[in-house]
Design a protein that fits this description.
With about 400 residues, this protein is an all-alpha fold. The chain has one domain. About 75% of the residues lie in helices and about 0% in strands. It has 18 helices and no strands. The radius of gyration is 22 Å and the shape is globular. About 35% of the residues are buried.
Length: about 400
């Protein structure tokens, strides 16, 4: 299946936001506070100040970016389920059998990278946290929470191949970004199961609604993101639509003809989303789910977003996004921390940031080429084997 370029580009930007978020948490927390103080001193209106600050917050919102990953993942893996003439049973068998291997191989190599860095004393994040002091060295701080254990090869393998998928624990993880993998894996299986049960049932939208309500009631919000991604894909690709869905699609076409207006309004909604949702009395725990769903929906509909995200740089970043997501934290805890330790000035931190970005991009390219793409090849082989003999 060919990649949808603008969705791949959005994934690339989301991965970059995660890296920016973690770079900020590594060495720029104090500078961020000073920056906001300086912005508030500007001789401009309060609206302009709040727009700038809220925009910076969005560019550093790594948690929101992860929710975008989950919705995108569900949307993309669901496409084949709604293409006419496909052998859906074979697709389900293939997807179920290969999903673990697709994720496990790159996860394992990212853990091995962290293991060897820790084994050879190249992890400097704890030392950096102590050097920088509060808030970096606080007991509950992000930077100070990693690698508080001795390296153990067997435990590293177990952490990669079992814990990350079935019982993730931050305190024993060799790569803390893997907290998302368990949700990614189980959410994918849940998506496959939904289609396996509901298929193209004429009342499936009612069933989707019931599933979403149950998940919201249970507060399993990350799983709700996968269901919403699947529903959006159904809406866009299914050939088994009813009269209500067809009317909605016609209404959408009319609304989205106002491309520039929707672009401007949607950007304002995204920037001020927390304020808007709080004003609407939406509890904070639902904000990421609502906003990520809105971002995916508007990207799927607006031609300007599609052109921006389908351009060369975002698309290329999307191609290495999973790799950059998996390896960036060990690099931050080793190289970046080492550089800041040896030059704890603003100029030193900027140099460390630029160096880090170059190193992450370079090694992400190699990781994507020699590990991630090979994992897709081997996982497809597993899926094809089970499809062949099922």
């Amino acid at each position: 299946m060919h990649k949808i370029k603008y969705l791949e580009g959005l994934r690339g930007i989301a991965a970059l936001i995660v890296i920016f978020c973690h770079l900020n948490a590594t060495c720029f927390l104090i500078q961020q506070q000073h920056l906001y103080l300086e912005i508030n001193k500007l001789a401009v209106s309060g609206i302009v100040k709040s727009f700038i600050i809220n925009s910076i917050d969005k560019l550093l919102d790594g948690e929101l970016a992860v929710w975008i990953f989950w919705l995108l993942s569900s949307y993309v893996i669901s496409i084949l389920f709604f293409k006419k003439g496909e052998n859906y049973d074979k697709i389900l068998i293939g997807y179920f059998s290969k999903r673990y291997f697709r994720l496990a191989i790159p996860v394992l190599f990212s853990v091995l990278l962290a293991y060897f860095l820790l084994k050879f004393g190249l992890i400097n994040s704890h030392k950096l946290a102590l050097t920088l002091g509060s808030p970096y060295s606080d007991s509950n701080s992000w930077l100070n929470s990693f690698y508080t254990f001795e390296p153990n090869f067997i435990k590293a393998i177990k952490s990669a191949l079992y814990d990350s998928f079935f019982r993730y624990k931050s305190v024993s993880s060799y790569n803390d970004v893997l907290w998302t993998i368990q949700n990614e894996f189980l959410g994918s299986l849940f998506t496959f199961s939904i289609f396996g049960i509901i298929r193209h049932n004429s009342r499936r939208y009612l069933l989707y609604f019931i599933i979403i309500i149950i998940l919201l009631k249970l507060k399993i919000l990350w799983l709700c993101a996968f269901v919403i991604g699947h529903v959006l894909c159904d809406f866009d690709f299914s050939t088994n639509s009813n009269s209500i869905i067809n009317k909605l699609k016609k209404f959408e076409v009319g609304v989205h003809n106002f491309k520039l207006l929707i672009l401007i309004l949607s950007l304002l909604i995204i920037v001020y989303s927390r304020v808007i949702l709080s004003f609407m009395l939406v509890p904070a725990i639902y904000h990421n789910l609502v906003l990520s769903s809105f971002i995916i929906y508007i990207t799927l509909r607006n031609e300007y977003y599609k052109k921006i995200f389908a351009s060369k740089i975002p698309f290329w970043l999307g191609d290495i996004s999973f790799s950059s997501y998996l390896i960036h934290l060990p690099i931050l805890c080793s190289l970046t921390s080492f550089l800041v330790l040896h030059n704890n000035t603003l100029q030193g931190k900027i140099f460390a940031t630029l160096t880090t970005l170059i190193v992450i991009i370079f090694f992400s390219f190699l990781f994507a080429k020699y590990i991630d793409k090979r994992s897709i090849y081997y996982a497809n082989g597993v899926g094809n084997y089970f499809k062949k003999y099922s």
